[in-house]
Amino acid sequence: MHNLNLPSFNTKIRKKGEVLEIFDPLRKKYVMLTPEEWVRQHFVHYLISEKQFPASLIANEAGIKLNSLSRRCDTVVYNRQLTPVMIVEYKRPDISITQEVFDQITRYNSVLKVPYIIVSNGLKHHCCRMDYQQQSYHYLTEVPLYRQIVQ
Predict the structure, then answer these.
(1) What is the model's pTM?
(2) How many domains does the chain have?
(3) Residue 5 domain-assigned?
(4) CATH of the domain at 142
(5) How far apart are CA 150 and CA 64, in angstroms?
């Protein structure tokens, strides 16, 4: 797998038949190890270990309804009242972060209306604070600590 611009950690990887799987501690199961999943597991570990996000308030592959269609957000972070406060969208390291990627996450956000969105390919991370009054978003220089997001 790719080296990422994220802290490394001890991953649990196994081979099941011809498929490599990685353990997702949030979903409490092994999932197929794809390049995008590699980014997801590292980014979630970063949120928990470096940015003090409670693991119990993070959901991977969170389902939403968008125009009566079922969709899945890569990661959703909640506050203690279980209101969504952040969506994270992941791409493989070889995929550039483009306007199309931001369009995808903003479509999901039209349902959840979170104050923060993040897009990461494991090498570059873009964190934005939503401004619903101005119908825009502002890029942040880094991902805030969890306590800053929920205050």
Answers:
(1) 0.91
(2) 1
(3) no
(4) 3.90.1570.30
(5) 22
